[in-house]
Each structure stands twice: as structure tokens, then as C-alpha cells.
Amino acid sequence: MKYITGIIVLTIFIIQSTFAQNEQVPHLKDLVFNSDPLSELFTAYINVKNNLVNTDSEAVRHSSQNFLTAIDQLTVENLNPKQLGIWKKYKNKLDFSAKQIAVTPNIDQQKEYFMRLSKNLFKILKSFKTNKIAIYYQYCPLAFKGKGGYWISEDKTINNPYLGKQIPTCGITKQTIPAKQ
After folding, report:
1. 113-134 confidence digits (pLDDT tens)
2. Which residue in 179, 161, 141 sits closest to 32, CA to CA?
3. Strands 172-177 vs 135-140: parallel, antiparallel or unpaired
4. pTM of the entire structure?
5. Dist CA 14 CA 10 (whole Å)
6. Which residues is 38 bridged to in the sheet?
7. Contact between residue 138 and residue 109 where contact means Cβ atoms under 8 Å apart
8. For the chain, where are the alpha helices, taking DSSP H only?
């Protein structure tokens, strides 16, 4: 009986320690934005991008659903008038692209809609300028059979969502949104 009690106490201690450690690990959303309106949206976008890099169509669909949830949960009351105007201009475009990514199991079609999503989200990020870290707008000239494609990254290192495992480092940073202090 003492042995079982000891195991239970040890298990509770391990669980509590794990939760305490997880609370100390910063999330991307906490590192990226000074004000909250875009943090969930950007974090969800990065998850979509990373799943495309890994060429995981089902994970892309799931993370796109999270992006849609972040669109719906964005609190417009926290936006200033200029930001609100930009948000209204691009919200439906983001919503459309994310829905298309979420419903198609075809990774190539997901990538096409992701390029549109990236273009419109970058316009929002560039206008809002609430990021605490630099944000990179990256480009691969080989994507889409040589037509090229853009994406957004939280990291200067190239992780290509269009060529994924084939040529993961193909691309360059075209623009940078500097961190706002």
C-alpha cells in the first residue's frame, strides 16, 4: 500500500513539475506582438507554414482550421481606426484562402491558397507593425514551376513551404518588418 501511495505522490509531483515547466516556456504568440490582436493569427499561420514545409497535408488542414478560429476570435475593439480599416479590407481574403486550405486534401492546392494567404497577411502585418520580433517576407523563385511564391517567417533561415523536403532552403528574404521596441 505504501508503494502505491508513493507512486501516486511521485506521479502528482511529476505532473505538477511538467505544468510548471510548460508555463515558463514562452509561446511564439507571446514573443511576437506588443499588442495582442495578431498574436493568435500569426502563430496559427506559422503552424500552417511549418506543416507545409513538412509536406503534411492533414496537419496543414488542421492548422488552417486553427487559423480560421484565430480570424474569428480577433478582437476588433483593440484595433485603432487605421488597423480596423486594413483588417476589414483583408479579413475576407484571409478567410477564403484559409477555408480553401482546410477543405482540400491536395497539398499542391493547399500551397496555392497558402501563397494568397501569405500575401494578404503580410499586408496586414506590415500595416499594423505590432511585432516584437523581426518578421521576414521570403520568396522562392522556383515555386509553382518557376512562377515563384512568397511566404512569411518568424525566422530569417529559409524553410520553404512550397518545395518542402525537395529543396527546403530555396529562397531569399525580400522584406523584413523590423521588431517594434
Report:
1. 999 999 999 999 999 988 888 9
2. 179
3. antiparallel
4. 0.81
5. 6
6. none
7. no
8. 2-24, 28-32, 39-53, 57-73, 81-103, 107-128, 143-146
Contact in structure between 151 and 79 (CB atoms under 8 Å): no
Contact (CB, 8 A) for 148 and 137: no
175's enclosing H/E stretch is strand 172-177
Amino acid type, 175? Q
Q: For CA atoms 140, 101, 154, 175, give the dihedral sign.
A: positive
CA atoms of 21 and 171, how far apart (whole Å): 36
Residue labelled with grid coordinates 518542402: 164
| Residue appearing with cell numbers 476570435 | 73
**Integer angstrom CA distances of residue 34 from 22, 94, 131, 163, 176:** 22, 22, 6, 32, 17
Residue 168, classed as helix, strand or coil, is coil
